[in-house]
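Pilot study result, target chain (161 residues):
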Amino acid sequence: MVRRVTESIELLENARKRFPSDGGIERLLEAARAIDYEEERQKGVQAILESERALRAHGKLDDALELVKSGIRLHGQDVVLSDLCRVIGLEIEDRRSRERLDQYRRKAEDLLKSGSPAEALGVLREARSQYPSEPSLEFAAGDRGRSVCATKRTRDRHVCP
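Predicted structure:
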């Protein structure tokens, strides 16, 4: 198709030279150039999509996002690139959220291992306030809470509510 468009442009340019006052030839030439431009743009977008997939496959979401953003700057507001930009942005935010959640869990686990169950429970409760819909935190906070209560009962002989 590219070859045909290129050939058409060449033929139309020759025809315009022979018939400079023919407005129809000029309109056809403009249409052929627009098709050529769009084909080149689509090839550029396709190359970006292939590179983006490779980056994402290697876990390089930040690099993939920057590539897509540069593609948008270069090729304009392409629907596929714009949607992909939003999707990658959400994936990056999700990854960061999971990393923060893992930090809370590791900190609570370290505190438990060091013999500070009450502090571990505080960390889990803080994490739960940041991630109220995270079911594993509710379970963990409940388990840790019971553990803290059991520890206090043993130590203080009080019953936890």
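One observation from the pilot: The chain has six helices and no strands. A full batch analysis is planned for the follow-on phase.
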